[in-house]
């Protein structure tokens, strides 16, 4: 699975250089106009990929956005809330497209709440808003304040900028109150999106290509935490979508990888067990036999 674009890669590809102060102790924040970047005429396509930072973009002009498993064409103005979990890109679908956007790391909000808890950043939401010209002007005014603030010498300007990011989020939620879903209710699109994101998270850990590589997520609760969902809710969605529990889907994929490693590598069984996150070899042998009906040694023969 392709690695997410880092902030350093973003700056090098779109700005040509790194800023003097790349990552501050309180996280990173910056704000841009599309015209200020390399390829800022909008003709340079953004790769469809995950990023390792958050991004909020206000785009004016006809454009098309691909976000996770969805595609949306916006005729006038689009407000896009992108997060590190979900791959996306957008491309102009006409001439004269302009954009302003801010980028920030999760650490930028450390100690100020969990940014992932907002509905716009949850996997059961679709964080693309089609705005009228009047609504876009309201959001653009917040960006103008960002540009003024970041250029100032005010000692606490990053506190102000943090509040302005929240101002955009809350403005969007007020403009589209339907984004705030009723607990316990979820449409089919949201269920499909959660399922797709879970499967992407799971598959992203494979293939294992080195004995030094160890999968990071093995338990249902770990996947639920990464998706910012309660584990019972994730189980319910996956059970309805696939007929299998979260734990069963994880175990089946791990067993598949174990068979591939036993067949196509000369790694020891202990090394394979370790790469799959098993600290106890006997536990791995029991796990493998449960899903394959033979022991790892028998399968390799």
Automatic annotation (TrEMBL):
<keyword id="KW-0805">Transcription regulation</keyword>
<feature type="domain" description="HTH araC/xylS-type">
    <location>
        <begin position="192"/>
        <end position="301"/>
    </location>
</feature>
<dbReference type="InterPro" id="IPR009057">
    <property type="entry name" value="Homeodomain-like_sf"/>
</dbReference>
<keyword id="KW-0238">DNA-binding</keyword>
<protein>
    <submittedName>
        <fullName>AraC family transcriptional regulator</fullName>
    </submittedName>
</protein>
<dbReference type="InterPro" id="IPR020449">
    <property type="entry name" value="Tscrpt_reg_AraC-type_HTH"/>
</dbReference>
<dbReference type="InterPro" id="IPR018060">
    <property type="entry name" value="HTH_AraC"/>
</dbReference>
<keyword id="KW-0804">Transcription</keyword>
<dbReference type="Pfam" id="PF12833">
    <property type="entry name" value="HTH_18"/>
</dbReference>
């Amino acid at each position: 699975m392709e690695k997410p674009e880092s902030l350093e890669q973003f700056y090098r590809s779109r700005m040509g250089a790194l800023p003097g102060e790349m990552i501050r102790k309180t996280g990173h924040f910056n704000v841009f106009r599309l015209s200020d970047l390399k390829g800022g005429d909008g003709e340079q396509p953004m790769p469809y990929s995950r990023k390792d930072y958050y991004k909020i973009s206000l785009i004016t002009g006809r454009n098309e956005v691909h976000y996770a498993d969805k595609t949306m064409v916006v005729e006038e103005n689009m407000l896009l809330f992108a997060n590190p979990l979900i791959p996306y890109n957008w491309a102009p679908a006409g001439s004269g497209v302009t954009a302003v956007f801010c980028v920030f790391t999760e650490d930028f909000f450390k100690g100020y709440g969990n940014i992932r808890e907002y509905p716009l950043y949850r996997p059961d939401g679709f964080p693309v808003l089609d705005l009228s010209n009047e609504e876009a002007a309201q959001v653009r005014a917040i960006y103008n304040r960002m540009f003024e603030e970041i250029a100032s010498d005010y000692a606490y300007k990053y506190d102000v900028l943090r509040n302005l990011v929240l101002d955009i989020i809350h403005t969007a939620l007020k403009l589209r109150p339907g984004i705030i879903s009723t607990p316990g209710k979820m449409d089919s699109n949201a269920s499909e999106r959660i399922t797709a994101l879970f499967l992407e998270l799971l598959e992203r850990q494979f293939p294992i290509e080195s004995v030094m590589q160890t999968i990071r997520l093995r338990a249902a609760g770990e996947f639920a935490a990464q998706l910012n969902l309660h584990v019972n809710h994730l189980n319910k969605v996956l059970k309805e979508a696939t007929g299998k529990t979260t734990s069963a889907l994880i175990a089946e994929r791990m067993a598949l990888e174990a068979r591939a490693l036993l067949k196509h590598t000369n790694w020891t069984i202990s090394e394979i067990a370790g790469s799959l996150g098993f600290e106890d070899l006997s536990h791995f042998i029991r796990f493998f036999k449960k899903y394959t009906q033979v022991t790892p040694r028998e399968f390799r023969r």
